[in-house]
Design goal:
Elements (H helix, E strand, L loop, with lengths): L2 H7 L5 H12 L5 H15 L2 H14 L2 H27 L2 H5 L7 H4 L5 H15 L2 H13 L4 H29 L1
Helix pairs in contact: 1-2, 2-10, 3-4, 3-5, 3-8, 3-10, 5-8, 8-9, 8-10
């Protein structure tokens, strides 16, 4: 199970996605932990069993147990936060903005890996989750921590490509079942 398996499974019409996936993995400016944690967190955010299986199998060989757990934690906490904060924003009533969330989020303060890596993973998951408020918050923390805009963009590109892979493979499976 691997990224190569995902690339092989993509149909011809998704050649761009296949090429983008390959180049993101082979030309990354991110550390190996940042890259594979982002890939894993994004795979989990897609909810695609196939993408999760392929990415997690390869990531397990590369990431430490702590990093593997933290990437899973980023996907989990942002699944909650993206819905909550996106909803508070979209309602449009500023009163909600002043109300405390009262949701436990301790993993953000103590993720078990470098905070910068966890923030990158949270940003990428938020791109998939479509939460502008979370994207703004995590991007600001990353920039204040010294991460370049190019590396932040790379995290978002990983999210976009992994999400596209999941969309193509899931839709092809659904079409095959019709």
């Amino acid at each position: 199970m691997s990224i190569d398996n995902l690339k092989s499974a993509l149909p011809d019409f998704a050649k761009d996605i296949k090429l983008n996936l390959g180049s993101l993995v082979t030309t990354s400016s991110l550390s190996e932990q940042q890259l594979w944690g982002t890939l894993l967190a994004c795979a989990l955010a897609t909810r695609s069993a196939r993408v999760i299986a392929e990415v997690s199998a390869e990531a397990a060989d590369i990431l430490s147990a702590e990093a593997f757990r933290a990437a899973r934690g980023a996907a989990a906490i942002m699944a909650m936060n993206n819905v909550y904060y996106r909803s508070m924003h979209l309602i449009g009533d500023e009163t909600y903005e002043t109300m405390p969330a009262k949701l436990r989020m301790t993993i953000i303060g103590n993720p078990g890996v470098e905070k910068l890596d966890f923030e990158l993973w949270s940003l990428a998951v938020s791109a998939i989750g479509g939460c502008g408020r979370c994207l703004e918050s995590h991007e600001r923390v990353l920039r204040e921590s010294g991460m370049s805009r190019e590396q932040i963009q790379e995290g978002i590109k990983i999210a976009a490509v992994v999400n596209a892979v999941a969309t193509v493979l899931e839709s092809e499976a659904a079409l095959a079942a019709v």
